[in-house]
Amino acid sequence: MMPFRIGYGYDVHRLATGESLWLGGVLIQHDKGTVAHSDGDVLIHALCDAMLGALKLRDIGFHFPDHSADFKNIDSKILLSKVKELIEAKGYTLGNADITIAAQKPKLKDHIPFMEEKLAEVLQSDADAISIKATTTEELGFEGREEGISAHAVVLLMKRTCCSTHKHE
């Protein structure tokens, strides 16, 4: 088996008034939120897909179908925890994750440290292993028109050795 694997994930959700906006496991106060079967956390969904894809474990919809009542309004941190278990069962652990959120509004820079801490907690890794960035699309596309929000994630998974721990230095 290869000592490391790289994965890429992407997710998008429509935005609507009256919905909650969860990003990176953190509730963001905004006049719009995501329309979704689960809590609609695009950041966590993209991260899950990147982790699953790195090990050829299909995608988040395969493991947690949006037509299943079991996942209705589920906290995406629970899904991420289950994905972590799946990659650990294959003998891998997260090396690092690099994630970009595309949204015209709200401004996210003040929330990013909390998101990084929350994800590190769920993944049992150092916060330094999680990088989150936010960008606008200069009012272009569905993100720029505030019709939706998207996230892109890239991960490096490392093969665990007999003596490795979950925390990375």
TrEMBL record:
By its UniProt entry, which PROSITE patterns does this protein fall under?
A: ISPF
Q: Please give the Gene Ontology molecular function terms for this protein.
A: 2-C-methyl-D-erythritol 2,4-cyclodiphosphate synthase activity; metal ion binding
BP-aspect Gene Ontology terms: isopentenyl diphosphate biosynthetic process, methylerythritol 4-phosphate pathway; terpenoid biosynthetic process
- Functional pathway: Isoprenoid biosynthesis; isopentenyl diphosphate biosynthesis via DXP pathway; isopentenyl diphosphate from 1-deoxy-D-xylulose 5-phosphate: step 4/6
Q: Which residues bind a divalent metal cation?
A: 11, 13, 45
| Residues annotated as binding 4-CDP-2-C-methyl-D-erythritol 2-phosphate | 11-13, 37-38, 59-61, 135-138, 142, 145
Q: Read off the SUPFAM superfamilies from this record.
A: IpsF-like
> What is known about its subunit structure?
Homotrimer.
User: Which protein, by its recorded name, is this?
Assistant: 2-C-methyl-D-erythritol 2,4-cyclodiphosphate synthase
Write down the species. Answer: Sunxiuqinia dokdonensis
What is this protein's gene name? ispF
